[in-house]
C-alpha cells in the first residue's frame, strides 16, 4: 500500500491578513518557521521514502526545514501549487468588494476553476501511486489545494469547506483502488499558544 502524508505549509503574514495567496512567493513569518520546525521534529520520528513540495516560497521554506531534519532531498512539483487566484491575488475580501462589488465571485477574474484544481490534485496522486508503489511519501503543499484534492479522492469522507491548519498532517493510504484516511488535520506537534497563533 502507498501511504502519502500531506503537510500544509507554515503560517504567513498573508494567512493572518486573510489575503488570497495564490501563486505568490510570500515567505513564512516567525510563527510559520516555528511551526515548520515543530512538524519536522514530529516527522523525524518515522521513516520516509520520498519528500515532494510545491515550489512556492512558503511551501519551499517549510519543506527545507523538514528536509534538513529527516535527511531526504526535496523534489519540487508545480502541480502542488496553491489555486491560481488570478486578479484577486494579494487582496482581502473588503478590497475585492470595493474593486468589483459584493458579487465579485460571479465575475471571471481568471481564477483557476475548482474542477481544474481537483483534477490537478488527482493526477498528482495517481502519478505517485504508479511511480512509487508501497512507499511512504511526504508532500508539502497548500490548504485550499489540499482540501479540494482530498475531496476529489475521498468524497464520502471529506467536506470541501473544511479548513486545514498550518503545518497540519493529513495521511491517506491506498485501498481497493481508492484512498482512505489514516489521519486528518493533525496538529499535535503544535503544543504552545505561541506556535498555534
How would you characterize the overall build of this protein?
- There is one protein chain.
- The protein is of the alpha/beta class.
- It has a single domain, classed as Rossmann fold, CATH 3.40.50.1240.
- 38% of the residues lie in helices and 18% in strands.
- The chain has seven helices and six strands.
- The protein has helices at 13-17, 30-43, 57-70, 93-100, 114-131, 143-153, 193-196, and strands spanning 3-8, 50-53, 74-76, 136-141, 169-175, 178-186.
- It has a six-stranded mixed sheet, with helices on both faces.
- A hairpin with a 2-residue loop joins strand 5 and strand 6.
- The termini are far apart.
- The mean pLDDT is 94.
Q: Secondary-structure blueprint of this entry?
A:
Elements: E1 3-8, H1 13-17, H2 30-43, E2 50-53, H3 57-70, E3 74-76, H4 93-100, H5 114-131, E4 136-141, H6 143-153, E5 169-175, E6 178-186, H7 193-196
Helix pairs in contact: 2-3, 5-6
Please give the CATH architecture.
3-Layer(aba) Sandwich
Order of helices and strands: EHHEHEHHEHEEH
Strand share of the residues?
15-25%
Strand order of the largest sheet: 3-2-4-1-5-6
Total individual domains? 1
Shape type = globular
Summarize the main sheet.
Answer: 6 strands, mixed
Radius of gyration: 17 Å
CATH C-level class: Alpha Beta
Determine the mean pLDDT. Answer: 94
Distance between the termini: 36 Å
DSSP strand count: 6
In CATH, the topology is named Rossmann fold
